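Table 4 source record.
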Amino acid sequence: MAREQSNDSQNLFFLHSADHPGLVLVSNLLNGNNYNTCERAIRIALNAKNKLGFIDGTYDQPSNTDSTVAAWSRCNSMHRNAPRIYQLKQSMNNLAQGSFSIHIYYTRMKTIWDELKTYQPAPTCHCGNMKAWNDYQEQESVMTFLMGLNPSYVAVMAQILMMECSPSILKAFSLVVQEERHRAIDFNACAKTAQGSGSSVALTQSRK
């Protein structure tokens, strides 16, 4: 029997206004040791939304001539990406610079961020909504980038956060890379000075 789309929350194809492909279903992050707990939490969340059948194969895809095929496709797209979105958000949450160079860290962060954006709905382009949305996304990417930096970059982080106009992610990246290069130059200069001092001491001692 065909399931007609409805605004009834009990209908299989009902979508709440807050539903979107980037919606986080559960708050506990998968850490490699809690798969069963996370799986159970996701199943409970989807079951509560009456959408579990879209990921366990219970709700088969209707034929192309079925009146519900469009509604089925929309709901299926909304929820079948949940595991990948969860994985991406987990990776983003755990990502930190650590021993990586700024360039490698930024590249990894940007790769995850860009994929996540493909699952996020964009507002209809009117009344400046698109610009506001893009500005918000840019600010969020800057904040994510800064939060993963090593504590030793706190000075340049403060400089970026104190800017009157929120910088683009590329500008923030450029400023941090510049700081990294300055440190490399200072380190090399100190190393040469120390090496020179050591050579002088050795030469003096050899003359005695």
